[in-house]
Specification:
Order of helices and strands: HHHHHEEHHH
Number of strands: 2
Distance between the termini: 42 Å
Helix content: 55-70%
Number of domains: 2
CATH architecture of the largest domain: Orthogonal Bundle
Radius of gyration: 21 Å
Length: 188
């Protein structure tokens, strides 16, 4: 069980003298967890065309939500032209197929193939192992609570400031000024 942060208290492990400051820093904590998960998740989906985006597309196509190519691009926040190339790659790999939408022949429905569904099961197991590794210090009850709280926080944050697309997020980040570099003080 994690110990609570007590300002000014000495860390349990003297080798971790910066732990008390980091425990109080939400940005550092979110970043550290995200980096750990992202590294493992990238390895888990490395052999899939499109990597993480390919996984999202394959998962959505397997569950038929949303059905059309355009709706899928909008839901995942992927530019339409990027989505076309990604779907081409997944289709060449035999993981998805595009079919005319019965309701609108101009639209295409993205559907996972049997091979795509099989691979999705494998990828889900790999991603679960990655999640288990990142959340390994938690008990099962703590994991469930963490998932509930982080999901609630993510939904609220997205409602307050929805990301139109991954491209717009990258553009916003590129516009942000670099944080100031803190240099150690010279000792007199």
């Amino acid at each position: 069980m994690a110990t609570a942060f007590v300002p000014g208290a000495a860390p349990a492990d003297p080798a971790d003298a910066g732990a008390d400051c980091r425990q109080a820093d939400l940005g550092w904590a979110l970043g550290a967890v995200f980096r750990a998960y992202q590294k493992l998740a990238l390895v888990a989906v490395a052999d899939l065309p499109g990597g993480p985006r390919g996984y999202q597309v394959l998962a959505a196509a397997s569950h038929d939500v949303p059905g059309t190519q355009l709706a899928l691009a909008q839901q995942l926040g992927v530019d339409r032209t990027v989505m076309t190339y990604l779907l081409d790659d997944l289709e060449r790999a035999g993981l998805i197929t595009r079919r005319p939408d019965p309701a609108d022949r101009r639209a295409r429905r993205v559907v996972a193939t049997d091979s795509g569904r099989e691979l999705l099961c494998t990828l889900e197991r790999r991603l679960q192992a990655a999640e288990d590794q990142v959340l390994g210090t938690f008990s099962e009850a703590e994991r469930d609570l963490f998932r509930t709280l982080i999901s609630r926080l993510a939904v609220r944050a997205d409602q307050a400031d929805p990301a139109g697309s991954a491209c717009s997020v990258a553009e916003d980040l590129a516009k942000m000024p670099d944080p100031p570099v803190r240099r150690p003080r010279a000792r007199a």
